[in-house]
From TrEMBL:
Keywords linked to the UniProt accession: Endonuclease, Hydrolase, Nuclease
GmrSD restriction endonucleases N-terminal domain sequence ranges: 35-164
Domain HNH: 357-392
Translocase in keyword set: no
Protein name, as recorded: HNH endonuclease
Species of the source: Brachybacterium endophyticum
Gene3D superfamilies named in the record: 1.10.30.50
């Protein structure tokens, strides 16, 4: 790969700057010869009123913006260049000089056109140091991974989009990475992640890839040249529809970010009555004994037996001590074991008095049968009897 150092003014780079508000993309610069956001690049994420403003303030103070990298694509006609690194900085400058945001100067909001002429000139005449690279696609992509350590690091899926760029990524991003899409709001009830940082696409890929025994990388490599995303889209929609048809109440916050793909694969062959499921879900989420609210869904999908998923609150030490004393005093009077199950047995343990450390607390009425976690429902059992009793 070849690299050559060039110097451009801000005025030159932002000439003919086009910004797409809907897709949050800086599109073109250098009077049409530069693609600011090639498809493998992430969306513009500096537009937060801080990082974009900081870029302009740096220019006004005469600080350098740091190295920028363009790729010479070797195209026969314009655009010949693509931004490899520096897209966020260039987009910030381009948006500022085209009046898309204001900065504060001497306590007043100023857009580019309201700045004094010397400030405008200072920005426009600032030099940008640009390395222009040319090489094979593979070389450039590999290098792109290496240099993208400055600024905000790429999210893993942003990096994968760069590595496997092509028609499949383009189609997948159009579906899953458009933050303006009305579907994002529905998906956000179940899926964690920022669509602009490719978080939703990452989840969709993970869901479709896992049942095929593939990693996200493996799936993207296999589908890289596909022009459509039918399987990806259908699978994702199926999972979301499945969840929302079983738990029909407005989605609870704890549903966000669960492994719905895995749950779908494990449980979608079973049938559920959505009314019952929704009611039980509400009860469990209201139950103070349930420590792990996120476990409620798999617990119910699995038939309500595996209470480990709920991390049910156990008896506290004071309650255990109290129950132990009550049982032991009574047992000593009758000369029987303080473990009620040993006491009715036939072996040598029938009159054994266990120490508190040798005993464990058990729900008399099982928690799953709505037994509560208080002294009235607490019984101490010896360890072997308690562990033999499954359902707590
Ligand atoms: Zn026992």
């Amino acid at each position: 790969m070849k690299t050559e150092l060039h110097q451009y003014t801000v005025a030159a780079v932002t000439k003919g700057f086009v910004y797409n508000e809907l897709e949050a993309k800086g599109l073109f610069g250098l009077d049409g010869d530069l693609v600011i956001q090639p498809e493998y690049q992430r969306h513009y994420i500096y537009g937060d009123g801080k990082k974009d403003v900081a870029v302009i303030e740096s220019l006004l103070k005469g600080y350098p913006l740091g190295l920028i990298y363009f790729v010479d694509t070797g195209a026969q006609s314009a655009p010949h260049l693509e931004v490899l690194d520096g897209q966020q900085r260039i987009t910030s400058v381009g948006r500022f000089v085209t009046g898309k945001f204001a900065i504060e100067r001497d306590g007043r909001e100023q857009t580019f056109s309201s700045l004094p002429a010397e400030d405008r000139d200072r920005i426009m005449d600032s030099d940008l140091l640009v390395y222009i690279c040319s090489g094979t696609e593979a070389e450039i992509k590999e290098w792109f991974q290496t240099i993208n350590i400055a600024g905000i690091p790429l999210a893993p899926q942003e990096l994968r989009n760069a590595i496997y760029s092509g028609p499949f990524v383009t189609a997948a991003k159009a579906r899953f990475s458009n933050s303006q899409s009305a579907l994002q709001q529905k998906w956000a009830a179940y899926v964690n992640g920022d669509p602009r940082r490719q978080g939703v696409l990452e989840v969709a890929l993970e869901w479709v890839a896992a049942p095929q025994g593939l990693s996200i990388d493996g799936y993207m490599a296999a589908h890289r040249q596909d022009t459509g995303i039918r399987e990806l889209q259908t699978y994702f929609d199926t999972v979301i529809e499945w969840v929302s048809s079983i738990f029909t109440a407005p989605p609870h916050r704890t549903m966000r970010g669960l492994e719905w793909g895995r749950l779908y694969e494990t449980y979608h062959h079973r049938s559920y009555r959505s009314g019952d499921m929704t009611e039980q879900m509400t009860d469990l989420l209201d139950d103070p004994a349930v420590n792990n609210e996120k476990g409620v869904y798999e617990y119910l999908l699995g038939g309500g037996t595996d209470t480990r998923l709920l991390d049910v609150r156990l008896f506290d030490p004071a309650t255990k001590k109290e129950a132990y004393k009550r049982q032991t005093d009574a047992a000593k009077k009758k000369d029987i074991s303080n473990c009620p199950l040993c006491a009715v047995g036939t072996n040598a343990n029938k009159s054994r008095i266990y120490t508190l450390k040798e005993m464990e607390a058990d729900h008399v009425t099982a928690w799953s049968n709505r037994g509560s976690t208080n002294l009235a429902n607490c019984e101490m059992l010896c360890q072997s009897h308690n562990r033999a009793k499954g359902n707590r």
